[in-house]
Structures are given as C-alpha cells and as structure tokens.
C-alpha cells in the first residue's frame, strides 16, 4: 500500500510556519490534562485493596489461579481464563512474579501502551490535517483513550484488550516492510482471533505479503500453543469454537456482539445460530467492502476502525475491554456542513465514555437500544455512516457555519467572550438531543449526590423559617392547610406539580428549535447556566422542605404523609434527593418558561398565558409543602443570573444580520429570524 494510504501524519499537515502562541498554550494545557487523567487512572487502580483491582489478572496469577493449577486453563469455575491458548502461554510466566510488583508493573505498562496507542493514532489521522490539529491530536487522543470505557475496564480488570489494537496499528502505520507488519498483525490475531478479518483488508488493498505473513504468524503461534497446551487448545478451538462461551454469560450486557444481542432478544438454539451466521456474513461483506474502499482512498485509519467494528459485531463474545476499535471510528468525517461534522465523533465519544443509562433514559421503550448502544455504534460505523471520501470538496473544508454579530450592548466590555459567536441556524438535532440527555443525566446525578446530612438539612430548614418569620412571608403553613379543605384545588396543585415540570420547558425548547433557532440557542444557554447554579445551591446548602420538617404540621399532599421519625422517607428517597430544595428549580424552570414566552411569543394572549405557568407553579410548590417561599426566590435568582451570564458572555439576544440580497427577511438561508420582545422584526442590518 502506498505511503499516502498509511494515513495522515506529519507529512499530511497542510499548514506550515510558526506555531500560534495560543496553539502552544492549548497544547500545554491538553498535555497537562492527559497527565492528570493518567495519574487519576493509576491512582484509581492502585488505591483499591488486593482482590478488587486487576481482578482478571489476579485470578490468573494468584496461588491456585489459572496459571498455577495443573490441568486446563479453562476450568469449570466462573473465574477461568478467557484468552486464547497462545495468550495463556505468553502470560503464564507472570505467575512467578511477586504479586504486588506485578500489579504495579502491569498498571504502568498498561498506561505506557495507552500513551503509545494515542501517539500512533495521532500520527495516522487521515490527511490532509491542519497543522493546528496535528499539534493537538496526540494529547487529545490520549485523553479520550484514558476516559473511554474499554481502557478504564482494561485498567481495572488487568485485561489485554489494548495489545491487539496496538499491534495492528504498529504494523500498519509504524514499522517498515510488509513481512514485519504481517508478523505483528498475526501475533494480534493469535491473541484475539477476530483480528484475522484484517487479512482480507490487506489482501484486497494490495498488501498480499503482509496478509500472507499474518496468516503464517497466526498459524505458527497457534501451532506452538497446540504443542505446549494440547488439551487447552482442543478446548478453546474445538469444544468452544474459538472461545465462544468462555467467561461470563454470552447474553450479559457486557457482550456487545450480534450474538449477545440476539440472545438478549430471547432467541436461542438453532434459530439464533442461523440468524447470527447470516447477519455476521452480511456485516463482514458490507463492512470489509467499505473498509477496502476507504483504505484505497487514503483513509487507512478509518479502514482499520471499520474492520475492527466488524470484528466486534461478528465475534461470539465482544467484552467491553475489546471495544477500542469502535472509538477509532471517530476519525471518520461524516457530514458536509461544519455544524454536522461534529455529530459523529461526538456520538462515538459520548457512547464510549459514558454508561448507557446516561445516554438514554431508563424506560422500557428504549431499553433494547440502551442495552446494545456499543454494538449499534459499531454496526453503524461498519455498514451505514456515509463517511466522506478525500476527493469530496467538503472533506477538507466543510460548508461553513454562518455567524452574525450581536446587537451592541450597553456596556463596552460586553460580550466578555468575543469568541462566543452567534449563530442563527439550527444546531444538529441528533447532537442537540444527545447533549441535552447527557446534561440532564449529569444534573440528576449531582443532585442526587448533594444530599448532606438530615440534621444539617433540618437545621437549614429552621433557619429559613426564622428568616421568613422576620420578613413576614411565612405563608407555607397557611397555604398547605388551606388547600386541604378545598379538594379540587388540592388535586389541581398536586397534578400541576407532578405533570408540567419537564413537559413545558421541553415543549418551549422544541418550538424555539423549529421556529426561532437563534432564540433557541440563547434560551438553552440561559437555562443551562441557571441549572448549574442551582446545583451549586443543592451542594452547599442542603435544605429540608416543609413536608420533611418534624413538628411544624405540614402534610405532603402529593406523596402522602411521611414518616419523619426515620432518617429515610420511604420509596421517595430512592427517586431523588429529598434535601435539594434551595433554590427551587421547579419554580426556576417555570419562571424561565414564562420569561422566554414573554420575550418570544408574537401575540399578547400568548405572553399572558405564558405568565400563568410560573404563577401556578409557585402556588403548587408552596401549597403542597414541597418548597419554602425563599426557595422560590432562590429559583428566581438563579434564573436571573442565568440570563445575566448569557448577556455578559455573549451579548444581547438580538443579532445584526449581514446585508441580504432580497428585502424580505425570509430569504435568509435556512433560518427563521428572532423577533424582539414585542414580536417585531429583527434589528436593521448595518
């Protein structure tokens, strides 16, 4: 294969000359970030007590482990060895090392492998690569590898899943000579048999010597293992059909292969085997054809990633530490617009970094998707995502995003972030939904963790009561007892409290996304800032709501009376943090809704209707004894701060458009222009 097909690298950078000082600073910061992540990963492993760290490695090497006992590596217990016989032959000498020294040495060796892998990936990026990107690629690649689920899993278990990936990349992008390249890939295949799928890739792209060397090396390594471990080789290759069925249950969520997905779907026996074989054949055919096409196009790293994704999908068992191939698929360029170019890599990175229940909600309708997210991404990369060829005019320069200037602010130093450029077009919907879901998952997690102690929360509650009495705004008990005498009003507030907290903000964001994209970005940012400030309040000021304050006579009209004699409050404790009362984001989000509707709605009746939502919400949270009056004031404060931060950082909401070729504003390509607070047309272009 020609050198041009070996990826990008230093020779493919398109910019030359001196390095921008800002790029140098960014490079230093990114390398420091990579170092911090590496140190954190090592500390997370080494601080665990023996028996909880490097669990697979300790199972193999400890006294009585797979490498010590006489007989088969593949015993009948649940902790037996799952690698190939050749891997067992290579790793068996480790059983003679001191246990503590082996753990430390293995951890640092794994770190070194990850660093080398990141450097090789950065060198192999498909060209042309801008000089700025080439300088930042290595620390970014290492950081992403460090936080990815496969690498974290390999660090924790002491597994070898990184080694086959690194051997393949070294063979294709670093070493000279096809025979040496084939030897490295052959050793990788001897450790992970699905790597043999790289042989057709090598053969069909003109590297037949490398393909032949791969097969020869694999055969020699496997024959050596047969000679040294005949019983284990028979067990692995014949009895278990190349390792199928070894290790954990094949239908567990950890097995992200087609075989595992079919088993989880309830298919078993001959039907499952026939369907798996047919699907595997289709994936191999389509995936390898695409990989060959991109390799011939000069995107060899993408071709390697696609082949690895095929291997993940068709392997009988593809455990989490074997899924690094999927992360490599992020190098593919999909989408001709600059706004769409980020969608694929962001999706891959988020799914390879975060657990499935963070990406998708824990509801039955999406459970099959959530349980097979990694497999779905692998299949999408191998068979579906339309990556751009290098000959495409948008491969190097995507269609740029249209930026506009904000209306001049009242203060000279606003906006504080001049690089926060205003966009009037819609963001990519898939990426937007993904970011919103991940952001909300993070919010829920932090909110649940910021619990504080029961005594502290109740002490803060007594402080709130004292302040409200001094200010003569302590109306909570009057409202709570009053609604209990008017049942229809109690039922209305209970229903309103439970039903509209999420529905109304999401509906407003959806309407803004469709009708007013520029206002959507402004509103989304202000809501995000307000929520972040609310989380800070939950963390530093845990507060018991009225319904959880003993001796004050409040009744939780929504969930029923609580047992205040116990430090936990039944099932509700497991649903959410009971002490996240200050500030009240229940009211804060409703106030945000009202403000956005007033500013953006074109009709007066719409504006008035929008104001009813925060009014009903504040009545509901107080009457149901879920919040204090000061909680509502706190919610209003963080919302005001959220809007204020957006104004300070990005400038006013309205924007100045460039001169248009036609007088009608609707001719602006792909946008619906924002209106001012009275529903009028945007500012006159300069």
Walkthrough of the structure:
There is one protein chain. The chain is globular. It has 686 residues and is mostly helical. The protein folds into 3 domains: 1-246, no CATH class; 248-400, no CATH class; 453-565 and 579-658, no CATH class. The protein has helices spanning 21-46, 55-61, 85-91, 99-123, 131-147, 149-157, 162-173, 178-191, 198-204, 208-228, 230-239, 258-264, 269-296, 300-314, 324-328, 338-341, 343-353, 356-359, 367-371, 373-383, 429-449, 454-471, 476-483, 487-499, 503-515, 517-540, 572-575, 585-600, 604-623, 629-650; strands spanning 403-406, 422-423, 655-656.
What is the residue-mean pLDDT, rounded to a whole number?
83
Give the strand content.
Answer: under 5%
Number of domains: 3
Radius of gyration: 30 Å
């Amino acid at each position: 294969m020609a050198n041009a097909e070996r990826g990008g690298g230093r020779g493919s950078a398109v910019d030359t000359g001196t390095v921008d000082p800002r790029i140098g600073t960014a490079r230093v910061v990114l390398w420091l970030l990579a170092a911090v992540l590496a140190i954190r990963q090592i500390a997370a492993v080494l601080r665990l007590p023996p028996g909880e760290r490097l669990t697979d490695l300790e199972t193999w090497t400890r006294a009585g482990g797979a490498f010590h006992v006489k007989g088969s590596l593949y015993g009948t217990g649940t902790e037996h060895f799952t690698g190939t016989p050749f891997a067992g032959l290579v790793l068996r000498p480790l059983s003679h090392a001191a246990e503590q020294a082996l753990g430390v040495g293995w951890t640092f060796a794994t770190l070194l492998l990850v660093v080398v892998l990141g450097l090789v990936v950065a060198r192999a990026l498909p060209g042309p690569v801008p000089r700025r990107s080439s300088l930042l690629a290595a620390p970014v690649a290492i950081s992403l590898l460090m936080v990815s689920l496969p690498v974290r899993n390999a660090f924790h278990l002491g597994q070898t899943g990184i080694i086959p990936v690194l051997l393949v990349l070294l063979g294709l992008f670093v070493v000279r000579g096809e025979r040496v390249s084939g030897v490295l890939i052959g050793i990788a295949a001897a450790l992970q048999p699905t790597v043999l799928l790289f042989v057709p890739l090598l053969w069909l792209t003109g590297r037949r010597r490398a393909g032949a060397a791969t097969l020869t090396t694999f055969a020699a390594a496997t024959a050596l293992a047969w000679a040294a471990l005949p019983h284990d080789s028979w067990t692995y290759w014949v009895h278990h059909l190349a390792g199928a069925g070894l290790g954990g249950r094949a239908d567990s969520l950890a097995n992200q292969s087609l075989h595992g997905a079919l088993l989880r779907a309830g298919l078993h026996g001959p039907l499952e085997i026939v369907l798996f074989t047919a699907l595997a054949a289709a994936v191999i055919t389509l995936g390898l054809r695409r990989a060959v096409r991109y390799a011939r196009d000069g995107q060899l790293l993408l071709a390697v990633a696609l082949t690895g994704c095929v291997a993940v999908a068709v392997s009988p068992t593809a455990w989490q530490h074997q899924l690094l191939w999927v992360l490599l698929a992020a190098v593919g360029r999909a989408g001709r617009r600059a706004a769409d170019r980020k969608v694929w890599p962001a999706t891959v990175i988020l799914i390879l970094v975060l657990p499935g229940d963070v990406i998708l909600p824990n509801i039955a309708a999406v459970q099959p998707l959530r349980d097979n997210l990694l497999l779905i991404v692998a299949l999408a990369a191998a068979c579906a995502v339309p990556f751009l060829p290098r000959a495409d005019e948008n491969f190097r320069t995507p269609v740029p995003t249209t930026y506009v200037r904000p209306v001049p602010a009242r203060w000279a130093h606003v906006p504080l972030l001049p690089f926060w450029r205003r966009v009037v077009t819609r963001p990519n919907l898939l990426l937007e939904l993904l970011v919103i879901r991940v952001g909300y998952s993070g919010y829920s997690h932090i909110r649940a963790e910021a619990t504080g102690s029961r005594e502290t929360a109740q002490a803060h509650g007594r402080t709130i009561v004292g302040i409200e009495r001094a200010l003569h705004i302590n109306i909570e008990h009057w409202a709570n007892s009053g609604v209990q005498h008017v049942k229809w009003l109690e039922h209305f507030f209970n229903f309103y409290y439970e039903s509209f907290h999420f529905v109304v903000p999401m509906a407003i964001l959806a309407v803004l996304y469709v009708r007013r994209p520029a206002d959507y970005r402004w509103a989304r940012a202000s809501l995000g800032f307000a929520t972040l400030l609310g989380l800070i309040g939950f963390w530093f000021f845990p507060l018991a709501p009225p319904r959880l304050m003993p001796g004050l006579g409040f009744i939780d009209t929504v969930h029923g009376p609580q047992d205040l004699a116990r430090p936990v409050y039944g099932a509700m404790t497991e649903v959410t943090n009971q002490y996240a009362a200050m500030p009240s984001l229940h009211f804060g989000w409703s106030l945000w809704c009202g403000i956005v509707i007033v500013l953006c709605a074109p009709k007066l009746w719409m504006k008035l209707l929008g104001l009813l939502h925060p009014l009903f919400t504040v009545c509901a949270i107080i009457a149901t004894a879920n919040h204090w009056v000061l909680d509502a004031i706190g919610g209003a404060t963080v919302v005001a701060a959220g809007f204020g931060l957006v104004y300070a950082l990005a400038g006013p909401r309205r924007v100045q458009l460039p001169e248009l070729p036609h007088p009608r504003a609707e001719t602006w390509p792909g946008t619906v222009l924002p209106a001012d607070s009275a529903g009028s047309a945007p500012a006159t272009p300069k």
